[in-house]
Write a structure and sequence with these properties.
The chain is α+β, with helices and mostly antiparallel strands. It has helices spanning 4-14, 36-39, 64-90, 119-125, 174-177, 191-199, 213-216; strands spanning 18-23, 45-52, 95-97, 105-107, 112-114, 130-131, 137-138, 146-153. The strands form three sheets. The protein has a four-stranded antiparallel beta sheet with strand order 1-2-8-3, with helices on both faces. The radius of gyration is 17 Å and the shape is globular. The N and C termini lie far apart (45 Å).
Length: 231
């Protein structure tokens, strides 16, 4: 049987910068219809991996480099997850990809668009990072400058330790105060307001990401390995 260390090494060899594992018993608070077991009824573990998001893209006078990076990482990590699932099947283990943030569906109960399983919450449950007031995952290594993906598997793998507490200072409200769409400050981000501000500009720029204040103004934007980069 494959070990947790071997699973992680497979993804590191493919180019993952971070990888951790959550056991299925950590998902009791998942929204109805979006629990790992709603996707893979035999799921016992969730493997979460991340790639570093180059911080230099936030220093530009145009939003195109940031958008290119986001779109490229989405595609690259989906390809990685599919290849990883194939390797797991060669070991006699069922594994399925869940897709990046670009692959979402409507939750009819709440009116929110969700990934079939939230990679951000999977990452938090795996101890890869903690979710901040800006609703982004903050990792010790790279701050919030990461892109995430999760794979569900029926392998019973050793889970990683969860990181406790919040990454944010109690009195910090930088992301909330500087959100042009006033989308932050409540338990869940105002998804529609954020999307309309970040994407719906001029028609020619509709697919470009106009705003990332919540990411780049955050004191936790960069982790220890990125702190030599000034943004």
């Amino acid at each position: 049987m494959i070990t947790s260390a071997e699973v992680k090494q497979l993804l590191f060899d493919m180019g993952a910068d971070l990888c951790k594992i959550a056991s299925i018993d950590r998902f009791d608070d998942a929204p109805e219809g979006f629990h790992p077991l709603d996707v893979l009824p035999s799921c016992k573990s969730v493997v979460v991996f991340a790639k570093k998001f180059p911080a230099g893209t936030t220093r530009c006078n145009t939003n195109i480099p940031y958008t290119i990076t986001r779109n490229t990482l989405c595609t690259e990590m989906d390809i990685m997850s599919v290849k990883f699932c194939g390797l797991m099947e060669e070991c006699g283990i069922t594994a399925v990809p869940t897709g990046t943030i670009s692959n979402t569906r409507l939750d009819s109960k709440t009116g929110r668009h969700r990934s079939i399983v939230s990679a951000k919450h999977c990452a938090s449950n795996a101890g890869l990072g903690r979710i901040g007031k800006n609703t982004l995952l903050v990792t010790p290594e790279y701050g919030n400058m990461v892109w995430l993906n999760a794979v569900l598997t029926d392998a019973e793998l050793e889970p990683d330790e969860i990181l406790g507490g919040s990454p944010c200072e109690e009195n910090c409200s930088i992301c909330i105060d500087n959100c042009p769409a006033t989308a932050l400050g409540e338990p869940e981000m105002k998804q529609g307001a954020c999307f309309m501000h970040a994407f719906k500009t001029e028609p020619a720029e509709e697919l470009n990401i106009k705003c990332h204040n919540c990411r780049t103004l955050c004191p936790n934007c960069l982790g220890s390995e990125n702190k030599h980069i000034k943004i």
